[in-house]
From TrEMBL, chain A:
Gene3D superfamilies: MetI-like. Residues 65-276 form the ABC transmembrane type-1 domain. It comes from the Bacteria. The lineage of its organism: Bacteria, Pseudomonadati, Pseudomonadota, Gammaproteobacteria, Oceanospirillales. This is Sorbitol ABC transporter membrane protein /mannitol ABC transporter membrane protein. Signal peptide: none annotated. Belongs to the binding-protein-dependent transport system permease family. The keyword Heme does not apply. It comes from Marinomonas foliarum.
Automatic annotation (TrEMBL), chain B:
Pfam families: ABC_tran, TOBE_2. One of its GO terms (cellular component) is maltose transport complex. One of its GO terms (molecular function) is ATP binding. This is Sn-glycerol-3-phosphate ABC transporter ATP-binding protein UgpC. InterPro entries: AAA+_ATPase (IPR003593), ABC_transporter-like_ATP-bd (IPR003439), ABC_transporter-like_CS (IPR017871), ABC_transpr_MalK-like (IPR015855), ABC_transpr_MalK/UgpC-like (IPR047641), Mo/tungstate-bd_C_term_dom (IPR008995), NA-bd_OB-fold (IPR012340), P-loop_NTPase (IPR027417). Keywords: ATP-binding, Nucleotide-binding, Sugar transport, Transport. It comes from the Bacteria. Residues 4-234 form the ABC transporter domain. It comes from Marinomonas foliarum.
């Protein structure tokens, strides 16, 4: 009796969630199996696996998958490593700590589009960007970042965007680290490095796992930064899966292939998630 | 021979003077307990000795070496913390060997030392466990083992037993006493529990408001306190303090006027000048209930039966309440009027500024 009432009360939200998920998913699956090009309306015949074949054999496919993975791993490594170091650095009280923390967190509040514009026009522009000015004043040729190192440029932008998130999580975690443990280690003859290596890093294992998982979800679908800055180019040099799908759907008007790509992205996300959970998820149970 | 010498040690926080000139010398192998009410500076003093707090004046010398400015990792001291502060992600064995591994001791020696320490603390079966899989008492033993394994010059204990339940605390107290006997290492122990102080210490240091109030063996402090603070702090139940108005000197006897009764007090037990009024201190076990011929009379308010003994709370004619130790199977009833006999030889006199002005008689 009681259980059925609970189920009844939960039902609306569960059904809502299911509908929310299942309708887009089933429509995507459906679109991926028919011919669905906006240039040829009305010719929506069933084509089986053909959309998938088109997507996988697309010249942009291999670069897009590898770019997606490179982007994901690079940003993860940069945000976790730099994030841990910066958080450890600002953990001890110092003059102006509050302001420094706010400054470190603030990039997170800037929307991806604006972020990309800032980097594209103010930092990396070969004529009036800050990087160009720095290299010129040191007597070097300015680098046109977006065309010479397009993927690295995107990695820098996205890392800048996500570093604050990592810092936010790590700073909070560091505040919960037991001071008596650090003092005990001090008495045991540990240097600052020893304490960092043997106490702080293990203490941060769980927050690191959380940061990696959450960032993975968002980094697999980076789009705005690429769209605004490099436009996926030159060639396919900075095209990732999300951008390739956009390319198929809205530049080539082929919804069928784009849907197939979307399903492939779901598959890739799951594969990555399984590996990441294997690698870092076991820390969650500690 | 002084092993650890603390000279005029000062500690200022921003606007708080935590240690106000501590002078103390500790011999090698001594078990010294710092005791005092919360906020008296006992933990600060220990942490300053450990080097976890920096002093703002004075010096600390250990074994002929000035360690005032030395980093705590180089002081050759080991500390047991109240929260145990075990490294949570390391096994017991790793916790025990952490300091040795940092000191680059050879694997064979580490193994040897860990084995002998774990055997002496009955941790053998737990070596592969993580701290969270241990009970409170086991964690405590690991924390002690982690200190022992390094063979430091001095052990520092910061209220190590206060997180344990009462039964375990008694047991660990005994183990600590045994450990000190076996190792013979100098130990400094901070507690707010005067029972721990009395049972463990060779010497007790009583701190009050950042200063040392008195240093002495437990019995000295109990029998001959310097001040009202020490007299009240040591002993359960507390010493009874009864204000007496006039003292009259007749030859070599003083006559103290205690609520209308004249109590004789040998004049040679008085040190210093004779004040106008005094407070009499007398411990519950130094008074007895008598049929007739008592020094005081009182009415019983309440009797606490502890099994082995009983404590009678009495109200005196001045409305003051005192506690008297009574035999276990006392027939006392609430509200009963009784006569109280005071053991004059155990009386301690305090002057108006709460200092003791009497000496205890030589043991017969």
């Amino acid at each position: 009796m009681k259980r059925s009432i609970t189920r009844l009360l939960m039902a609306p939200s569960v059904i809502m969630l299911l509908v929310w998920m299942i309708i887009p998913l089933s429509m995507t699956i459906y679109f991926s199996t028919i011919r669905y090009n906006l240039l040829y309306p009305g010719q929506n015949n069933f084509v089986g696996w053909m959309n998938f074949e088109f997507f996988i054999t697309d010249p942009g496919f291999i670069p897009a998958v590898s770019n997606t993975l490179i982007l994901l791993l690079s940003v993860l490594i940069i945000t976790v490593v730099v994030g841990v170091m910066l958080s450890a650095l600002i953990d001890k009280p110092f003059f102006g700590q509050g302001i420094v923390r706010v400054l470190l967190i603030s990039p997170f509040f800037i929307m991806p589009t604006v972020n990309a514009l800032i980097w594209k026009n103010m930092m990396m522009n070969p004529v009036y960007g800050i990087f160009a000015w720095i290299s010129e004043s040191l007597g070097f040729e300015p680098i046109d970042w977006l065309s010479s190192y397009p993927l690295m440029s995107v990695i820098i932008m996205v890392s800048w965007q996500w570093l604050p998130f990592a810092i936010l999580v790590f700073v909070t975690a560091l505040q919960s680290q037991d001071t008596e443990q650090k003092e005990a280690a001090q008495m045991d003859g540990a240097t600052g490095w020893h304490i960092f290596r043997y106490l702080t890093i293990p203490h941060l294992a769980r927050p690191i796992a959380v940061v990696v998982m959450i960032e993975t979800i968002f980094l697999l679908a980076v789009f705005a930064e690429i769209f605004v800055s490099t436009g996926g180019g030159p060639g396919y040099d900075s095209t990732n899966l999300a951008y390739l799908i956009y390319n198929q759907a809205l530049l080539q008007y082929d919804v069928g292939v784009a849907s197939a790509g979307g399903l492939f992205a779901v598959l890739l996300a799951n594969i990555v998630a399984i590996f990441l959970i294997r690698a870092v998820g076991k820390n969650l149970t500690v | 021979m002084t092993y650890l010498a603390i000279t005029d040690l000062q500690k200022h926080y921003d606007n708080y003077h935590a240690l106000r000139g501590i002078n103390l010398s500790i011999s090698e192998g001594e078990f010294v307990v710092f005791v005092g009410p919360s906020g008296c500076g006992k933990s600060t003093l220990l942490r300053t000795i450990a080097g976890l707090e920096s002093s703002t004046g004075g010096s600390i010398d250990l074994d002929g070496r000035d360690i005032t400015e030395v980093a705590s990792s180089k002081r050759d001291l080991a500390m047991v913390f109240q929260s145990y502060a075990l490294y949570p992600h390391m096994t017991v064995a790793d916790n025990l060997s952490f300091a040795l591994r940092l000191a680059k001791v050879s694997d064979a020696e580490i193994k040897d030392k860990v084995r002998s320490v774990s055997a002496s603390l009955q941790l053998d079966a737990l070596l592969e466990r993580k701290p969270k899989e241990l009970s409170g008492g086991q964690r405590q033993r690991v924390a002690i083992g982690r200190a022992i394994v390094r063979q430091p010059k001095v052990f520092l204990f910061d209220e190590p037993l206060s997180n344990l339940d009462a039964a375990l605390r008694v047991q660990m107290r005994l183990e600590l006493a045994r450990l000190h006997k076996k190792l013979g290492t100098t130990m400094i122990y901070v507690t707010h529990d005067q029972v721990e102080a009395m049972t463990l210490a060779d010497r007790v240091v009583i701190l009050n408001a950042g200063q040392i109030e008195q240093v002495g063996t437990p019995l000295e402090l109990y029998r001959q306190p310097n001040s009202r603070f020490v007299a009240e702090f040591i002993g359960t139940p507390k010493m009874n303090l009864i204000p007496a108005n006039r003292i009259v000197r007749n030859e070599d006897t003083l006559s103290i006027d205690l609520l209308g009764q004249q109590i004789p007090f040998p004049a040679n037990r008085l040190k210093g000048p004779l004040p106008d009024s005094v407070v009499i201190g007398i411990r519950p076990e130094h008074m007895s209930l008598v049929e007739t011929d008592g020094d005081l009379t009182g009415r019983i308010e309440l009797v606490e039966h502890l099994g082995s003994e009983a404590y009678a709370h009495l109200q005196l004619s001045s409305d003051q309440t005192i506690i008297i130790k009574a035999p276990a199977r006392t027939e006392l009833k609430d509200g009963q009027e009784v006569n109280i006999k005071i053991d004059v030889s155990e009386i301690i006199l305090f002057n108006e500024s709460d200092r003791v002005i009497s000496v205890i008689p030589e043991e017969a």
